[in-house]
């Protein structure tokens, strides 16, 4: 067998590069499609608990994003889909309330019984929050849950929940700032595609990809 020519090496290298780019494109494209598909789901099967993922709050008053999630969780409770509502999320430096406490107060003020609200005031990102929820979920003897967040955040949150030992469907809110414009929706799909791929590669929090959705 004779020596391999330079042109043959270049062709082989080009094929490898093109093959890698094709695989990467398929992975990224497939993930984006799943983010979009899961965003459109609305699991209304009866479960033990709705887990409301945190978002910004201002001195105990939920932001528009958090209020949209809380309103949706209240609807699930009122409709008999869930027995409990669990709010989760920590506090920023200088805050008087955690995101979980803000959500708990809003739910109680809007008719959800106090003994049906659980607050877990831990977590500065989606992964940390769900890991904090996992022992509470087990200790209550719950076996099923539904995650309440923004549509585009749902697939990543569900992936992290299941990795944390929480068997969860998704029922995202379709109101609030994350769904108001097509530009926002497109940017969130792009963001969540990157965040989910980063999480799958690193098993690390991925909320720093653009504006936080947790």
Describe the structure in your own words.
It is built from six helices and seven strands; from the N terminus they run αβββαβαβαβαβα. A five-stranded parallel β-sheet has the order 5-4-1-6-7, sandwiched between helices. It is elongated. 49% of the residues lie in helices and 13% in strands.
Summarize the structure.
With 214 residues, the protein is α/β, with parallel strands linked by helices.
What is the β-strand count? 7
Main beta-sheet strand count, sense and barrel state: 5 strands, parallel
Q: How much helicity do the residues have?
A: 40-55%
Number of helices: 6
Name the overall outline: elongated
Secondary-structure element string: HEEEHEHEHEHEH
Strand order of the largest sheet: 5-4-1-6-7
Which ranges are low-confidence, i.e. pLDDT below 50, for 5 or more consecutive residues?
A: 210-214
Termini, distance in Å? 60 Å
Radius of gyration: 21 Å
Q: Kindly state the mean pLDDT as a whole number?
A: 89
Portion of residues in beta strands equals: 5-15%
Structural class: alpha/beta
